[in-house]
Design brief:
Layout: H1 2-31, H2 34-74, H3 92-108, H4 113-125, H5 129-144
Helix pairs in contact: 1-2, 2-5, 3-4, 4-5
Length: 150
């Protein structure tokens, strides 16, 4: 729940910032000189890119949460079997062991979105965020019945 609140607050702050920057871009364009119009257009491009990125990221998170809820309803969410350090961090060797199991499971069923979801969790636990995101994107695509690029 804390993560949802943090995400929502961050998104709201970003939207406020984009509106603020966008209004400055409009003000520059309204000045009417070639230089200010050029800068105004350049300033307006940044909030557009930011809003697009925020929208795509929100869609990704929403779809991943939907998969998690569906997997939870089936009783298929991965069990937290990771050993932790006294400080609460995940033990690297333990994460590697679980990752090896999840990778083998995914290789055995490469068209099953559930195995890709669990692999994404294992990547995340191993602190490999780019691969976790790619694995989750693949799980989402398989779940939605879309063609998956290798």
């Amino acid at each position: 729940m804390r993560a949802k609140i943090s995400y929502t607050v961050t998104a709201a702050v970003l939207v406020f910032y984009f509106v603020l920057v966008g209004s400055r871009g409009v003000m520059l364009i309204q000045s009417g000189t070639v230089l200010t119009v050029t800068f105004g257009v350049a300033v307006l491009i940044l909030p557009v890119i930011g809003l697009w990125f925020l929208w795509k990221n929100t869609q990704f998170v929403r779809k991943a949460n939907q998969l998690a809820a569906e997997l939870d309803a089936e009783g298929g969410l991965p069990v937290d079997e990771l050993k932790r350090t006294p400080g609460g961090r995940i033990d690297r060797d333990s994460a590697d062991e679980v990752f090896a199991k999840r990778k083998a499971e995914t290789e055995a069923a490469p068209d099953d979105w559930r195995s890709w979801f669990r692999l994404a969790v294992a990547y995340h636990d191993a602190r490999d965020t780019p691969r976790a995101r790619k694995a989750m994107q693949r799980a989402i695509a398989l779940h939605d019945g879309k063609a998956v690029q290798v």
